[in-house]
Write a structure and sequence with these properties.
Elements: E1 4-7, E2 10-12, E3 18-24, E4 33-39, E5 46-52, E6 57-59, E7 67-72, E8 77-82, E9 91-98, E10 102-104, E11 108-112
Parallel strand pairs: 2-11
Antiparallel strand pairs: 1-3, 3-8, 4-5, 4-9, 5-6, 7-8, 9-10, 9-11
Length: about 110
Amino acid sequence: QVQLVESGGGLVQPGGSLRLSCAASLSIFSFSRMGWYRQAPGKQHELVALIFSGGAKNYGDSVKGRFTISRDNAKNTVYLQMNSLKPEDTAVYYCNALRDVDYWGQGTQVTVSS
């Protein structure tokens, strides 16, 4: 059974930083890609960042230059470093992994507010 466990969300002021973690129950090389999506109230599900098994990365336009995705192979964990956070980054952030099907974490709330 594949499990993805997220952590690291919370409340932060505009301009601040947070780091999200997603720990997988399998080796991250079991997945063709892993990454993060987010959903804000009343908005569609949005791509944040992906990292592929070969190391390539892909970012949503709204986070380019501010967010960085990385991984620790030994810990089977993918990270999302979020800098220069804006109120519009407020959302539930979901970890995603693709193997035979898409797997999802339970989500972690990120709130950017003064």
